Amino acid sequence: MSVETITTISPITNKPVLTRTGISAEDLQQLPVTATEAFLKYRKTSLKERQDIVKKALKLLNDKQDELAKELTEQMGRPIAYTAKEVTTAVKRGEYLLKISEDALKDTDGEAEKGFKRFIRKVPVGPCLILFAWNYPYLILVNSLIPALLAGNSVILKPSPQTPTIVEHMASIFSEAGLPDNVIQYFHCGSPLIIESIVRDPKVALVCFTGSVAGGLATAKAAADRIVNVGLELGGKDPAYVRGDVDVAWAAEEIVDGAHVGPVVSKRSKETIEAHIKDALDKGAKDLTPENETFKSPPSEGNYIKPTLLGNVDHSMTVMTEETFGPVIPVMKVKNDEEAIKLMNDSEFGLTASIWTKDTAKVAELAEDVEAGTVFVNRCDYPSPDLAWTGWKNSGRGVTLSKFGFEKFVKLKS
């Protein structure tokens, strides 16, 4: 197996900003071996010791916010205000998981029986492979890394080639915080075959994947010839239903906030977005985007697409059914609540959805019928660390965040 050279292209300029050397076959095979050796020692540490390490690491991460935000913007293109917010939100999310860790990992007592002590203990699963995406890399990583370490596991991290330095910083931060050697390892890779090879390794006790549906299915398939848990966080379409009783201008402003983006991540992504828009227009959609001076002269370099508002759309158009992953909002009229819910559920995805209304009694009924892991009311795109983050249908399998986010990182022993 030849060693890759992995190049990160900035979507701001479409020029290379850094390169990394991919992992060799020998080093790839050694990763789970070393992770197992580190795990056997680390699992013996107390929860209090692990909590102290995580607390120190989160403070170090917060202290490096400005440096990390600037670098993240360069690599994946999100405006600096949003990348800085991502780092601070990742810290807050980690702090919440730290706060609930004792309760999430404590023993569960069995029924009392004279002469016996009966309980269920949560023990770490072993080396965890965490494969994560570029779009919110610190947030996505924290979702799995923090509970994995608090539960007593070692981890192997594989970042997106778009944001490769995340793992380097996190490994350095945790080392400075006192995490024992090799409890965190990482590798750089762009080849699906290499990823599938380590997924198949019997020493890997858990696989956590965040990315596309195709990537998730390939990961699950690679793991299918052995008994191993594979957590998947995949795509989403995130429908928003605005009922007639709500202030439409206010709802529109809030919904648009969930669609902000800088330059899209790659030329290929830009081409996909343009194809979705063209498909809709060819099938009768109307471009309702208002005139704006800032849209007329986008930067000559980079993958910029003007914000686009489409009307007269329907579910024959890809923009209504597939992930567009860009600054495009299609708007479709519906006759009533029943039609709205039917259309919201007419999707292969089920990550999030939102309903906008003043009728708090009715919305509880409507939300019950929405096929999504998270249903927001009068807001969107605000995951909360105390609530389970989970996808339905092709949006994934398994849970992160909340006390339930610890479950896949432990085995039960009675």
TrEMBL record:
Belongs to the aldehyde dehydrogenase family. Keywords: NADP, Oxidoreductase. This is aldehyde dehydrogenase (NAD(+)). Coiled coil: none annotated. Its EC number is 1.2.1.3. It catalyses: an aldehyde + NAD(+) + H2O = a carboxylate + NADH + 2 H(+). The keyword NADP applies. Residues 4-259 form the Aldehyde dehydrogenase domain. GO terms for molecular function: aldehyde dehydrogenase (NAD+) activity. InterPro entries: Ald_DH/histidinol_DH, Ald_DH_C, Ald_DH_CS_GLU, Ald_DH_N, Aldehyde_DH_dom. It is an enzyme of class 1 (oxidoreductase). Pfam families: Aldedh. The active site is at residue 233.
